[in-house]
């Protein structure tokens, strides 16, 4: 009974009675299979599916916030406003010291003193030139006035001398008639003629002196114009030098301290640095948010294979990270604008919600979306949207029949095997 054959036989033997169930009729199996295939064909032929894509973005306001970055390297020495304060355009916010010191003192202060001394000397030279100009022109005008008076006197003398010459000429003519009649002798006529020509020579000398006075007046007028132009030119050169010194002084001031101002009206949202802190080029200093926000928009980044299917007015679903969809659900939004050219990497880097793995081979397009709800109701509170809130959106793209989606790989094989397209 303990033989190996007996033990194996006991293990292989049935412990109960075997009952065989009757088979399912073949017509039922065939009907179920046919019904399944018919349902499947109807589903893939009639049913449709819309391709969708999930993209990321962030909330921005219109007008948007102004982010101010440092353009210099230095130390913050003064803060003019506090966080949350209302500020106007051009108002100072920070004063940054960018000066350098040596054993002789602060370089910018020394340069400023030297330039101010040069400005004082240049101003003194200009004042002296203007005084010399006035003195020189006054002397020339005085000489011109004297020569004008001399010209007036000599002109009167010449006029009277001409009248006397005319009288002597009449006398000479009379003496000639007297001599022809025998009333006077020839010597008397000769004396009269000699006297006439002597007076005429005197008149010629007076006329030459009168013309010299007129020429001297003309020369003085020309000299006045020339001297005035020379002084004006020298003064202009010194003013140019003073202007260059002022420019150099402004550059020196910029090398000592820099005032950072607000570029728009609004509210100081955040101050990134404090007094005594060093800043480098590109460091964030402060942010200004507009006092009144018109609307909040959502900036999305869409790859190029999805852009052709997006048009302004399309509806989409939005999920905010600040308002989890499991509790708040999804929110409706409408596409406002779609960019026509890809966004540059520099533009995308200015947005926190832009894709981080930016590849040059995959162009990204900027899509602006307007949420239907500008604020979220939560209990008795109203939670507004804020700048920088990250969100995800579901875009609905092309709509096809299900069989077309199933056969899309075959279309790719067809296109790859087809020849050139004509027409």
From TrEMBL:
Alphabetical UniProt keywords: Membrane, Transmembrane, Transmembrane helix, Transport
Checking PANTHER family in the record gives: EXPORTED PROTEIN (PTHR30386:SF28), MEMBRANE FUSION SUBUNIT OF EMRAB-TOLC MULTIDRUG EFFLUX PUMP (PTHR30386)
Lineage top rank: taxon: Bacteria
Q: Where do transmembrane segments lie in this chain?
A: 20-46
Task: State what protein this is by name.
Answer: HlyD family secretion protein
Identify the species of origin.
Answer: Rahnella ecdela
Where found in the cell? Membrane
The record gives the membrane topology as: Single-pass membrane protein
UniProt similarity note: Belongs to the membrane fusion protein (MFP) (TC 8.A.1) family.
Major localization listed first in the record, in broad terms: membrane
